[in-house]
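> forwarded from #structure-qc
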């Protein structure tokens, strides 16, 4: 056999083995027509230097394990996920840049509108993720469900790092007042100079508000910053209302360009 032919045959054999291994880990499980690679399959591929650029998750266990996979750059939420307290016993500490996104923003998504209901409910958990080590956390194109409405996004704590939250539709079972009170809270944030621009938020109904562009320091002052933009909040919790907000022009996966402080 010629050298080139031998190399081709070897490559085919390796790909076949990887394919069989991933197929066993999948166990035939599919999400809306798309095979949902399990974390165990991803780990095996990582050992073979074929690490996927993202992990798709559809359960709380998959979400937690994906966020614990050190160095994984992107987690794609494919379905509604609700985590009980015993499923998330303590916060996951992340010290690398990671992006958590809904399937509707995934460029390879073949589900179309069926994936718009990708959501995470950590209301029974409290703080779910702690960012440290100067890492950047990006969360976008998702529905978040809270117990008590908070524009602070308490599911994530920035010990030493930055958070950028955009394209979120946040729904809560209860709220402490009218939307105007939450708007005032955003305008009360101290905006880091690095972002320029100004705080922009407004009520879009008695129980709904839009944060067009808000930024503040995190828990570690100059070592952590948060930017929240193009996101809508609604209270009380209503599947229909939050879905309409999520699909509205209010919500966008990208933060707007700042205006230089003008």
């Amino acid at each position: 056999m010629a050298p080139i032919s031998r190399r081709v045959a070897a490559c085919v054999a390796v790909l076949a083995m990887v394919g069989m291994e991933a197929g066993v880990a999948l166990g035939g499980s599919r999400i809306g027509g798309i095979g949902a690679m399990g974390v165990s399959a991803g780990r095996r591929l990582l050992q073979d230097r074929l690490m996927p650029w993202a992990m798709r998750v559809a359960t709380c266990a998959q979400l937690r394990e994906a966020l614990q996979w050190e160095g994984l750059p992107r987690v794609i939420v494919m379905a509604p996920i609700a985590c009980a307290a015993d499923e998330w016993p303590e916060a996951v500490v992340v010290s690398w840049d990671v992006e958590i996104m809904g399937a509707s923003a995934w460029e390879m998504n073949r589900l179309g509108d069926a994936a718009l209901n990708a959501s995470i409910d950590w209301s029974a958990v409290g703080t779910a993720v702690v960012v440290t080590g100067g890492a950047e956390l990006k969360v976008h194109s998702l529905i978040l469900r809270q117990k008590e409405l908070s524009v602070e996004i308490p599911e994530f704590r920035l010990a030493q790092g930055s958070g950028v939250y955009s394209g979120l539709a946040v729904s809560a079972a209860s709220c402490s007042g009218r939307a105007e009170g939450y708007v005032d809270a955003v305008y009360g944030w101290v905006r880091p100079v690095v972002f320029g621009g100004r705080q922009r938020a407004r009520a879009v109904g008695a129980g709904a508000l839009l944060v067009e562009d808000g930024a503040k320091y995190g828990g570690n002052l100059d070592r952590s910053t948060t930017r929240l933009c193009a996101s809508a909040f609604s209270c009380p919790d209503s599947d229909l209302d939050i879905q309409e907000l999520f699909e509205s022009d209010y919500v966008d996966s990208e933060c707007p360009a700042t205006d230089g402080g003008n």
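QC bot note: The chain has five helices and 15 strands. The chain has two domains: 7-52, 55-246.
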